């Protein structure tokens, strides 16, 4: 039985190399997509906790979003200034992993995000800047949309706050419509919907 020629061995090695490279690339892309999902879920969870804390403490809180991170500040009523929140892990400054960036919309209008957050310990920053997202002491969050993109690619995950104070995670596949993944306000079941429709009809 004859052995393999050098050329045959080289061809096999090239094929194996291509397969390994393709697999590594696929794993890298999937890993980064998972990274975006993790960051989206993290922001949603932190916002939910911040809303509960603002309501419990009766203090207005804000979120300043930069292109690569976000930071919580709190309104000082006496001075009417936004000040940093120190020594609280919930409100710690958070940065996105390298290669990811935020895009934000307030009241359905996209806003320009600064490359970095200001130094909130400086009086000048407290007077000059204000957070884009407000978490009120009533537990309300102003309507906003926050997307995370990777290297300028189209975003497929977002966090949105709706007018009814529902805080959602939504996802889409390519050009499809956004689909709700998680929310803070439970959806009405079919019985409740039918009941509300009947009540509305009866009032008319």
Walk me through this protein's architecture.
The chain is an alpha+beta fold and 204 residues long. The chain has one domain (10-187): minor pseudopilin epsh fold (3-Layer(bab) Sandwich), CATH 3.55.40. Helices cover 35% and strands 26% of the residues. It contains three helices and eleven strands; from the N terminus they run H-E-E-E-E-E-E-H-E-E-E-E-E-H. It has helices spanning 6-57, 123-128, 190-203, and strands at residues 61-65, 69-76, 81-84, 94-95, 100-106, 109-111, 133-135, 144-150, 157-161, 167-171, 179-183. The protein has a six-stranded antiparallel beta sheet with strand order 6-5-8-9-10-11, covered by helices on one side. Strands 1, 2, 3, 4 and 7 form a five-stranded antiparallel beta sheet that branches. Strand 9 and strand 10 form a beta hairpin. The longest helix is centred in the first third of the chain and has 52 residues, at 6-57.
Keywords summarizing the entry:
6-stranded antiparallel sheet; alpha+beta; minor pseudopilin epsh fold; 204 residues; 3 helices; 5-stranded antiparallel sheet; single chain
Q: What is the CATH level 1 assignment?
A: Alpha Beta
Q: What is the name of the CATH topology?
A: minor pseudopilin epsh fold
Order of helices and strands: HEEEEEEHEEEEEH
Biggest beta sheet summary: 6 strands, antiparallel
Could you tell me the radius of gyration in angstroms?
24 Å
Number of helices: 3
- Global structural class: alpha+beta
The total of beta strands comes to 11
